[in-house]
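Whiteboard transcription, Tuesday session. T.W. wrote the C-alpha cells on the left side:
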C-alpha cells in the first residue's frame, strides 16, 4: 500500500510544552496534580501517571498542604493543561495554598485576554466552538454573559445587543468559523468585531489534510475521539469526499478499510504522539 503522510500533523507546540513541563516537574520529584487528562491521548497520560502524575477531577480531591514550619510534605503543584481554565480556578488554587504550574498554551491565553478586553470595551462576546470543550469552558469565565455558538440553531437564542465581538475556539475549523460569522453578520446590530483566534498549528494541519485528500483514495485520521482538533480534521477530510476513518491507533484498523484501495493518506491530531503515527504508517505500508 502506498501511504502518504500529511506535511503537518501530530503534536503541536502547546501540547509539547505541557508534556515537557509535566515531565520536568516529575523528574524534580514534585507532587503534581492535573485536573483531567493532560492531553487527549491515553498512551501519553498512562506514561505520565506511571511517572507519578496524579489525575483528579476537582481541586477538592487534592489534599491541602500541611501548615506550620514542621510541615514535611511537599506542597502539591496543580498543572493547568494547554486548554487553560476559568480564572476562578487559578484563584482557588492560590487560596488553598497549592502551587500553580500554568501550561495554558499562549494562543489560548491570548483568546482568554481578548474575551476580557472585548467585554471591557463594551462588546457582547460570542465564542464559536464546542460548549463542552475545556478550552471553551475556560474562555467563558473571562467575562460575564459570554455566548457560545456551536451551530446555526444556537444563533436563535442570542439576546439583542448592538455591539458584538466574535472569537473562536483555537481548534475550530476556519471554514465553519467563517460560515457562522456570516450568519451572525445577518443579524440586527450596529457593530460587529471579529477576531480570528484559530491557531495556525490547527489551520496548517487542516490545509495539509485537505491537500492530501486530493491525492489519496482513503484517509486515516489518527487521534483520540475526545480531541476536538482531531474530530475537526476527520470532518474536514470527509467534506472533501474522501472515505475517512478516525482511529485512535493501529489496534483499531480493519483490513476492509483499504479493500480495493492502493493509496492511503494519514494525518493526526495535535495530541497524537509521533510514535503512534509512525506505527500506523509502518503497518499500513506493509499491506
Ligand atoms: S492546538 Fe494550537 S492553541 Fe491548541 S495547544 Fe496546540 S498550539 Fe496551542
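and on the right, the sequence the group agreed on:
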Amino acid at each position: 500500500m502506498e501511504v502518504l503522510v500529511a506535511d503537518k500533523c501530530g503534536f503541536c507546540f502547546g501540547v509539547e510544552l505541557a508534556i515537557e513541563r509535566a515531565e520536568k516537574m516529575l523528574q524534580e520529584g514534585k507532587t503534581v496534580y492535573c485536573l483531567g487528562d493532560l492531553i487527549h491521548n491515553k498512551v501519553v497520560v498512562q506514561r505520565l501517571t506511571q511517572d507519578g502524575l496524579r489525575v483528579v477531577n476537582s481541586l477538592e480531591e487534592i489534599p491541602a498542604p500541611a501548615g506550620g514550619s514542621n510541615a514535611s510534605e511537599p506542597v502539591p503543584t496543580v498543572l493547568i493543561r494547554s486548554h487553560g481554565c476559568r480564572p476562578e480556578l487559578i484563584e482557588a488554587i492560590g487560596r488553598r495554598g497549592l502551587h500553580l504550574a500554568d501550561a495554558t498554551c499562549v494562543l489560548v491565553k491570548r483568546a482568554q485576554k481578548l474575551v476580557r478586553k472585548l467585554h471591557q470595551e463594551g462588546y457582547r462576546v460570542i465564542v464559536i466552538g464546542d460548549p463542552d470543550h475545556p478550552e471553551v469552558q475556560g474562555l467563558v469565565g473571562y467575562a460575564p454573559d459570554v455566548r457560545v455558538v456551536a451551530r446555526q440553531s444556537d444563533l436563535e437564542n442570542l439576546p439583542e445587543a448592538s455591539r458584538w465581538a466574535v472569537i473562536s475556539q483555537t481548534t475550530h475549523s476556519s471554514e465553519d468559523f467563517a460560515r457562522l460569522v456570516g450568519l451572525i453578520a445577518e443579524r440586527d446590530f450596529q457593530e460587529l468585531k471579529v477576531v480570528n483566534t484559530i491557531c495556525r498549528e490547527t489551520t496548517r494541519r487542516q490545509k495539509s489534510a485537505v491537500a492530501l485528500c486530493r491525492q489519496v483514495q482513503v484517509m486515516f485520521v489518527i487521534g483520540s475521539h475526545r480531541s476536538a482538533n482531531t474530530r475537526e480534521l476527520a470532518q474536514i477530510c470527509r467534506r472533501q469526499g474522501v472515505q475517512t476513518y478516525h482511529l485512535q491507533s493501529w489496534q483499531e484498523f480493519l483490513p476492509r478499510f483499504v479493500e480495493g484501495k492502493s493509496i492511503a493518506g494519514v494525518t493526526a491530531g495535535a495530541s497524537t504522539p509521533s510514535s503512534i503515527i509512525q506505527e500506523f504508517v509502518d503497518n499500513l505500508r506493509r499491506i
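Someone added at the bottom: The chain is about 35% helix and 20% strand.
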